[in-house]
Amino acid sequence: MSLLFFVTAVYYGFHIGEVYWRYYEVLEAMKSEARLARGLTDREIRTRLAWKADSISPGLAPEFSVRRRARPGRITIETAYSERVVLPFFTHTFDLRPRAEEPL
What we know:
Number of helices: 2
Number of strands: 5
Distance between the termini: 56 Å
Strand order of the largest sheet: 1-2-5
Largest sheet: 3 strands, antiparallel
Order of helices and strands: HHEEEEE
Structural class: alpha+beta
Shape: elongated
Helix content: 40-55%
Number of domains: 1
């Protein structure tokens, strides 16, 4: 019986963990683009992030917001998207809002 619980926990954990793994990949890409922002236009940043999001999960196409502030010199990149996980006896929609901010 305990083996059944263990296998079930691993199964559910794997599928739910994938959502957070993709979230952290998107967040790291956003942080990387924010660090490189001095040499890139906002359009280039959005295009590169869209490519990265599509490579992480085809069909994942969040809109990226890029804001630059002169004082203090900072760039903020934000997005919001949802991922739905459907498992036996469990269905949940995860609303994710990654945000990256760096000095310019």
